[in-house]
Amino acid sequence: MPLFGQRPPATQSDSSSSIFSFRSNKSTINKAHPSTNQNAGGTIGQLCVVCMVSTARPDSVFCGTTCMTRAQSFGPHLAALQPTHPLYHTITELFGKGWSHDTPIPVIEKIYAVVAPENRHNFYRTYRNYIESKRKLKSKSVKPGNEQWRWHGTYCGCSITTYESRGAICLAPTCSLCGIIRNSYDIAWSGRKWGRYGRGIYTTCTSSKAADYSRTTPSNPLKAVILNDVVVGKGAEIAGDMPNMTEPPSGYDSVLAIPSKRLHRGGAPRGLNYDETVVYNNSAIRPMFIILYLPLPA
Ligand SMILES: [Zn+2]
Ligand SMILES: [Zn+2]
């Protein structure tokens, strides 16, 4: 079964013990930004967000496990990703490639890494390992558990979406963005208004579709989307609406909603216009980066 929106297999080590399993594709970055991702010393990378002395690993915002552990002990928070960090370019590129709407691709103003306590990552890794052992997906040239990056847009009710923001997260129960940063995703929050594929957590490869759901207070100039690790596993491709689902179809781990454009080639697109990935387990997803962007007028 085809799985759409796959990322290329990582070129770097991807053990569960790697820092947050951050990854990058060096060859893509070097091609796209030949002059910007090397510092004066000729090494790729930027200073670790904790010690600000050692160089962060190319696939992480930390220099090593000591700084990572220290950061995690502060509780969930945001750490600014420097524009010269390889991941900044990888994410910017992904955001641009995923922008399918007719509106101009927004300017990314800031990227924050979500620093979360180790137990959140443990739940995620345990689930990913479980799916991998069940489906043996690594042998199909995908990452363990068919892990993918997916976008999610939500409401930001605080000052994170301003230029003055230093990334301090708020405690307001109405701010969904900070809720996700603090606690990750919780299906229980989906309340009574379920989506077209039922009671799950909705993400997409299409950054512009996630942006449709990114709302903020009118006085804030910026908007935010979240880039997440998602254990897609074996995805069931579904075209029609199934609003009463509370779990994936038997034999599958997620739902991959097919855009109707693909189904009605040549005809008028109807229904769903962009891809969606829906997971039904809180541990199948973790927020990794918060991207602040300036929406541009059409
Ligand atoms: Zn460090
Ligand atoms: Zn907030």
TrEMBL record:
GO-annotated molecular function: NAD+ poly-ADP-ribosyltransferase activity; NAD+-protein mono-ADP-ribosyltransferase activity
Q: TM segments?
A: none
Q: Name one GO cellular component term.
A: nucleus
Where is each PARP catalytic domain found? 144-291
Q: A Pfam family matched by this chain, by name?
A: PARP
**InterPro entries annotated for this entry?**
ARTD-AVP, Poly(ADP-ribose)pol_cat_dom
Q: What PANTHER family does this protein's entry cite?
A: POLY [ADP-RIBOSE] POLYMERASE
Q: What is this protein called?
A: PARP catalytic domain-containing protein
Native species: Serendipita indica (strain DSM 11827)
Phylogenetic classification of the source organism = Eukaryota, Fungi, Dikarya, Basidiomycota, Agaricomycotina
